[in-house]
Write a structure and sequence with these properties.
Blueprint: H1 2-12, H2 15-41, E1 49-53, H3 78-90, E2 95-99, H4 109-114, E3 120-125, H5 132-141, E4 144-149, H6 154-161, H7 166-179, E5 185-190, H8 195-198, H9 201-210, E6 214-219, H10 235-251, E7 255-257, E8 276-279, E9 284-286, E10 293-294, E11 296-297, H11 304-310, H12 312-324, H13 329-332, H14 334-344, E12 347-348, H15 355-360, H16 380-389, H17 395-399, H18 408-411
Parallel strand pairs: 1-2, 1-8, 2-3, 3-4, 4-5, 5-6, 6-7
Antiparallel strand pairs: 8-9, 9-11, 10-12
The protein binds iron/sulfur cluster.
The site of iron/sulfur cluster has 10 residues, from helix 13.
Length: 439
């Protein structure tokens, strides 16, 4: 498989873009990890990767979207983005995730990317605004990879995204990128309605045939004002996604990204490990995109270095959550977020001002942490990459004890438990449940 992937990278790509990816995202990305490790040793903190939602506006209305897509347009303008990116680069950061809303609806997006040729950008997009002309500009810039979201076949895409003809418009944007040899990825938020269509070898083969270089199978998060909990995956389906990712990495000539497991298959949350944090369209500095709570902002007037170093809210988020789960606190223990918000006086960063109400309404459920069902990497290349850059940075090793984990699936049964998240242990908490995953 590695030879086939190497052949694709060598013969299907624009060599200048391949070099930029290798140097900016690869070499300089790994160097930012090295700097992060050195900072941690000195007791300093600055996340090596930042996700930045530059605008809230979007042309779609997806189930499970947490962004105020229909609200008054809020965006981080050219000057504020320049300041933020420059300060992060001074800390050694080189790779940035750009989200929205729909980032290509931000009129200054291409200028922002052009102003930072020494950084690499992954733009999360629905592809609807990537015309042939825009794709040509992305190729010219060379420091950007669009990650285009496909949420299902025609019918499911329209359902999931609340508009008509979503799939065909997305595929048109994708084809424009591929026609112009732009490094392009495809992602899916795997849920009940698309798991059988998209978690398939046939779908991955189609992406390879089209010229897509990497893919990402997220797991659907039950969040936002229209959270559609019926779409959430159960434990067996979570295991299927993980197994599919691990198998595809050794079978198919395409790069498969994931954000929730280390090389041994142990679960982690990249926000809890401090690998990444998020900046919202209003400039608020949040633990992650779906946790719309913050104490600080890029508009605070303090250097970003100081803000991350001194944020008690973010530090306590990492320390407290890592004591209770290796999974997603939003899905498993929304009560911990409520307690942290109350303790630190963190504000609701949404325009709709209902983030805390939405968190309180979440029914706890399993996430990527299923003890006893870890599926380790089969590919040596991913094992190596995860050994170097994608692990817990000591957070769970230091803080997590499996006996303190509250199994969401069992939690319902013992709802009379005191369940005080700031108490380190609780006598009534249920024992761990070991699911049998298909081999
Ligand atoms: S809190 Fe959940 S959604 Fe956010 S980064 Fe962690 S695992 Fe992902």
């Amino acid at each position: 498989m590695y030879l086939r992937l190497a052949k694709r990278l060598l013969f299907e790509t624009d060599k200048r873009l391949l070099w930029k990816l290798a140097y900016l995202a690869g070499f300089r990305g790994l160097r930012s990890v090295q700097k992060h490790k050195a900072r941690l040793k000195r007791g300093e903190f600055f996340p090596p990767f930042l996700y930045i939602s530059i605008i809230n506006t979007c042309n779609l209305r997806c189930q499970g979207c947490w962004v105020d897509v229909a609200g008054k347009q809020t965006k981080i303008d050219f000057a504020a983005m320049n300041k933020t990116l420059t300060e992060a680069k001074q800390m050694g950061n080189a790779f940035f995730g750009i989200l929205g809303g729909e980032p290509f609806m931000h009129k200054e997006l291409l200028d922002i990317l052009a102003a930072h040729p020494d950084a690499y950008f992954q733009v999360f997009t629905n592809g609807h605004f990537i015309t042939d002309e825009v794709a040509k500009r992305l190729r010219q810039l060379g420091n950007v990879t669009p990650l285009i979201s496909v949420e299902g076949t025609q019918i499911v895409s329209d359902q999931r995204r609340g508009r008509d003809n979503v799939f065909s418009k997305t595929m048109e944007g994708l084809q424009n990128c591929l026609n112009n040899k732009v490094m392009t990825g495809v992602c899916t938020s795997v849920c009940k309605t698309n798991i059988d269509d998209l978690l398939q070898d046939a779908w991955v083969d189609r992406l390879v045939e089209m010229g897509v270089m990497y893919c990402w199978f997220h797991v659907y998060r039950v969040v936002g004002p229209e959270s559609s909990p019926e779409l959430a995956l159960n434990t067996e389906e979570l295991g299927r996604v993980r197994q599919f990712v691990v198998n595809t990495r050794v079978k198919k000539p395409i790069i498969v990204i994931d954000a929730y497991h280390d090389g041994q298959g142990k679960a982690l949350c990249p926000a809890v490990t401090g690998f990444t944090h998020h900046i919202g369209p209003g400039g608020h500095i949040e633990p992650c995109p779906i946790i719309q709570l913050a104490k600080e902002s890029i508009h605070d007037g303090r250097p970003l270095k100081e803000v991350f170093q001194q944020s008690e809210f973010l530090r306590d988020f990492r320390e407290t959550v890592s004591k209770h789960t290796r999974g997603c606190v939003v899905l498993e223990r929304p009560d911990i977020l409520e307690s942290l918000a109350a303790k630190h006086g963190a504000r609701d960063t949404t325009l709709r001002q209902t983030a805390l109400k939405e968190i309180a309404a979440i029914t706890p459920r399993r996430s990527q942490y299923v003890p006893g069902a870890e599926i380790p990497e089969r590919s040596w290349a991913y094992k190596l990459a995860k050994w170097y850059a994608f692990h817990d940075y000591g957070t769970y090793t230091r803080n997590f004890d499996k006996k303190d984990w509250v199994d969401p699936d069992a939690q319902v049964a013992t709802s009379e438990c005191c369940n005080d998240p700031l108490k380190s242990t609780c006598c009534n908490e249920p024992k761990v449940y070991t699911p049998t995953l298909p081999d």
